[in-house]
Amino acid sequence: MSAPKITNAREFGRVAVLFGGASAEREISLKSGRAVLAALRERGVDARAVDPREDGFAAVVNGGFDRAFIVLHGRGGEDGTIQGALEYHGIPYTGSGVLGSALAMDKLRTKWIWQTLGLLTPRYTVVDDGTDLDALASDLGLPIAMKPAREGSSLGMTKITTREQLARAYSDARALDSVVIAERWIAGAEYTASILDDAALPLIRLETPRTFYDFDAKYLASTTLYHCPSGLEPERERALADVCLRAFKAVAASGWGRVDFMLDGSGRPWLLEVNTVPGMTDHSLVPMAAKVAGLDFAALCWRILETSFVTRGAG
After folding, report:
1. What is the spatial distance between Cα 256 and Cα 79, in angstroms, rounded to a whole number?
2. Over the stretch 33-48, which tens digit does the pLDDT of each residue have?
3. Is 258 one of the catalytic residues?
4. Would residue 207 show up in a list of annotated catalytic residues for this protein?
5. Catalytic entry in 23, 153, 254, 284
6. Percent of the chain having pLDDT more than 90?
7. Are strands 144-148 and 124-127 parallel, antiparallel or unpaired?
8. Which of 96, 100, 189, 223 is most buried, judged by most C-beta within 10 A?
9. E strand spans, the chain
10. Which residue of the set 106, 177, 214, 260 is catalytic?
11. Catalytic residue list contains 23
C-alpha cells in the first residue's frame, strides 16, 4: 500500500526520531539519526530526538508524540522489538511492521522464504559447535562467507579463503549471535536496490578494494566506489529491480529499505539480505540512490516519514 502524500509539515504532528539504542550498530545509528533529525527540522517538521538507551521508552510514551521515525539500526530497532512496542501504545511509525522487521533481520528465515518462492540466494549451512568445519568447506567450496544470522552492517562476517580461517570465523560470528550461517561466496559484482514506497530507486553498483563490502567499506573508507547509475541496460535494471521488490515483499517488508544482491558471471542475481532500517549517513546507499532519482536528503526523509501513515497491522 502506497503512503499518502503529505503537503504540510503540521500534518505529521510531533515526531519522535528514534536513534542510538543499545545495538552493536549504535554509533552508526547516532550518525543516521542526527542527519534525519536535522533534515526533518529543515522541512518544518516538529521533530524531537529520542535515544531509547539514554531516555528510555517512557520518553516516547509520555512525550505526546503523534508518530515515530525509526532510525535504530540492528537489534532492538530493526528486528520488530521497537515496532511492537510502538504498536502496543498506538504510535504510528515508519517502515516495516513487526513481522517484516523480524523476518528481514533473520537472514536464515529470509533464505527459507526466498527458496520457497524460487528466488536465488547462495547455498548455505547452519553452523554450530558440532559442525565438522572441514566437511563444511568441502561441501560449500571455498571461499565461504561466515556470518551471524541476526546482525547488520556486516558485523561478525568473514570471507574465508582457507580452511585455517574457519574456526576463528565461526568464533567471531558466534560471539554476536547464537545462530551462525555459512554460505557459498558468489564471485561477481555487488549491487543494492533501495526501496521507497513500493518502488525501487536506481540501482547502485559497489566497488571496494577491501576483501568485501565490510563495516569499514560501508562507513569509514574513502576508497569505496559507488556507481549510480549502475551501468546496466535500462531493461536489465528494471528486471533486477523487480526481483528485489519481490524479495522485499516476500518477507513482509514495507515502506522503505534496501535489498542487497550479487550478479555472478552468468548474470544471475543472488539475493543476500534485506535491510529494513538502512543507514542514513553521508556514506549511506539509500540517500545516494534517492539523489539520482531527484530526491535530496530532506525530501527523502519526508517521503519516509509519510510511510508512518500506512496501516500495516502485524506485518
Report:
1. 15
2. 999 999 999 999 999 9
3. yes
4. no
5. 153
6. 85
7. unpaired
8. 96
9. 14-18, 46-50, 67-70, 124-127, 144-148, 158-160, 180-184, 189-196, 199-200, 204-207, 225-227, 256-263, 269-275
10. 260
11. no
Checking if the pLDDT of 136 tops 70, the result is yes
- For residue 215, give the 3-state DSSP assignment: helix
Is 275 assigned a catalytic role?
Answer: yes
Q: 88 burial class (0-12, 13-18, 19+ CB within 10 angstroms)?
A: exposed
Residue 104 parent element (H or E)? helix 98-105
Q: Where are the beta strands (DSSP E) in 83-216?
A: 124-127, 144-148, 158-160, 180-184, 189-196, 199-200, 204-207
Write down the catalytic residue from 95, 219, 254, 257.
219
User: What confidence tens digit (pLDDT) does each residue in 145-154 have?
Assistant: 999 998 876 7
* Set 150, 184, 258, 312: catalytic member: 258
25 is catalytic: yes
Q: Is 177 a catalytic residue?
A: no
Residue with cell 539480505: 273
Q: Which of 152, 156, 255, 279 is catalytic?
A: 279
